Amino acid sequence: MESEEYAPMSGSNTICTATVLLETGMVPMKEPITQLTLDTAAGLVTVEAKCEGGKCKSVAFDNVPAFVFELDYQVLVPGLGEVSVDIAWGGMMYVLVAAASVGLKVESRYSTQLVEIGERIKRAVQATYTPVHPVNPKIKGVSILAFTEPLVEENGCKAAVNTVVVSPGRFDRSPCGTGTCARLAVLHARGQLAEGEVFKHRSIIGTEFTSHIRGTTRVGGYKAVLPTVAGRAWITSFKQVVLDSSDPFPEGFRVGDQWQMAPSSLL
């Protein structure tokens, strides 16, 4: 679940969910490898967890096919002019933007600008282009944006940094699983990443997912890749959420200090 939508698929949350299911015993853990299948709105996702001493040492998932809608799509952004973006599906609909193309870097010191400009670019794309999943037309429209740094060669594999801007304006602290899958599709479409090559994707805080393209296929009329992404999660707390019948805000609330919305949408 994202701040403003129920995402069809989330890679980091897949890793987290598998870790919780296994480490709490909700699903029996088998060492050294436990395999399971998760049902998501985007489709079935298979998971392979490496387990030792009752802990998940890493979790890899075979995601649904990822593919590119547009490469180098030109969008006019107020205050910025024309910006070139890629639009791809990786389990969510992504706008991918080279940070350098708008004078930024994926670093914490640029956080305010990354969030503000990222939201502006995304809104501009939403106003001009609506991708529709060719198999599930209920999934449509871009909802998330990734700023990317260039691909580099590193210790025999390829690597890059990114940060994902989630509405109404915050970063994904993980390298982003579905974002990694969308990036794999873009890199493959550009001839920059071959099937089987390892790609390490890093977040703005330095966390890392390891990924590769395990094969290719087609989704509707689009060439697609079959992405596999691996990472690790840790349980940090156990919480109990309750609903009191006398609570005047049973569905929660939004105020303008955090939620950047039109005044009519706020309390």
UniProtKB/TrEMBL annotation:
<feature type="active site" description="Proton acceptor">
    <location>
        <position position="10"/>
    </location>
</feature>
<feature type="active site" description="Proton donor">
    <location>
        <position position="176"/>
    </location>
</feature>
<dbReference type="Pfam" id="PF05544">
    <property type="entry name" value="Pro_racemase"/>
</dbReference>
<protein>
    <submittedName>
        <fullName>Pc13g02220 protein</fullName>
    </submittedName>
</protein>
<dbReference type="InterPro" id="IPR008794">
    <property type="entry name" value="Pro_racemase_fam"/>
</dbReference>
<dbReference type="GO" id="GO:0047580">
    <property type="term" value="F:4-hydroxyproline epimerase activity"/>
</dbReference>
<comment type="similarity">
    <text>Belongs to the proline racemase family.</text>
</comment>
